[in-house]
């Protein structure tokens, strides 16, 4: 089967992956694959380009080049099953049936990743350490020992379930003492007096006194301080290190699996379906809030992309040939929407919050999490980068949500 596109010299498009991008969504349970191809140049300005399919490869053929996308190690295509072919200026997309799928058997389970979420801080009780700004190395908290290093209740946990002895005011219990260190997801909570004279405060925001890096915020009416783990380092007797150890998952991957796990624990039905929604909130150094609405469509989607490009001998002197082996990844597929709030962060004033955001926040089935502005920005950058893997016609929706991926494995 062949589909022919009218084009004007598109030289060496397949000799370098920067000339075109291909992403293939593989859904083994329904034996189908969605193929998205984006070209670096518009298809309406070259002389000819032929796209051919057989059961083991996708072939691009042009008078000056020949490129094979090899798929046989992953699956075989049913070549007469191609449907939903769409072509615009620089994109092509289609769907096809597949068989003999070889890639779905060895992926780890969710529980394997859950073990990587809750990291213990690299601080031992009664160990003398100091906290320093990760930007300028200024001392945020002088050397001291912590008698208690304890986990802090997560956002999905009821406070009454966290304590075995109930009290009327849990807030008093959650305020750390001078020699207490509480830790949560990518943060620690200290008594506010531990940072006295070492930081600058503006409303509820805390900044490094030397470089003014935004490091955290106050809690419990300024009685406690919440510091983001990506804003400071720990200094012990002879080493400088992050508060949480590095592991097999990066911070974005840990965040996504935390969302899946907490959604599963608070709403058990989510353990059997892929649809999960979450509101991510972050306060930024300018004291304004940003929100990210995430709608997780699939949490175990296999995607073929990237891969090694190798030149091969060609029987035609003027035609350069290459082969590309795609690499399988696991990914979350999701919709996302960024909401900026132009007004300053105020505890009780919600007049600036958009109706859609308020609707999501009031829904008891939608998880809400606060994360650091640095993790928030890193996540948004990756979403924006990966959304470009999809052609524009599949990328945008009518309600201002964008489709994207977050990869792991």
From TrEMBL:
Gene Ontology molecular function: cyclin binding; ubiquitin conjugating enzyme binding; ubiquitin protein ligase activity
Species whose genome carries this gene: Glossina austeni (Savannah tsetse fly)
Enzyme class: transferase
InterPro entries recorded: UBQ-conj_enz_E2-bd_prot
Catalytic activity: S-ubiquitinyl-[E2 ubiquitin-conjugating enzyme]-L-cysteine + [acceptor protein]-L-lysine = [E2 ubiquitin-conjugating enzyme]-L-cysteine + N(6)-ubiquitinyl-[acceptor protein]-L-lysine
Pfam families for the chain: HECT_2
Subunit structure: Interacts with UBE2C/UbcH10 (E2 ubiquitin-conjugating enzyme). In vitro, interacts with cyclin-B.
Function according to Swiss-Prot or TrEMBL: E3 ubiquitin-protein ligase which accepts ubiquitin from specific E2 ubiquitin-conjugating enzymes, and transfers it to substrates, generally promoting their degradation by the proteasome. Independently of its E3 ubiquitin-protein ligase activity, acts as an inhibitor of CPSF3 endonuclease activity by blocking CPSF3 active site.
GO cellular component, one term: ubiquitin ligase complex
GO BP annotation list: proteasome-mediated ubiquitin-dependent protein catabolic process; protein autoubiquitination; protein monoubiquitination; protein polyubiquitination
Entry EC number(s): 2.3.2.26
Source organism phylogeny: Eukaryota, Metazoa, Ecdysozoa, Arthropoda, Hexapoda
Domain of life: Eukaryota
Entry protein name: E3 ubiquitin-protein ligase E3D
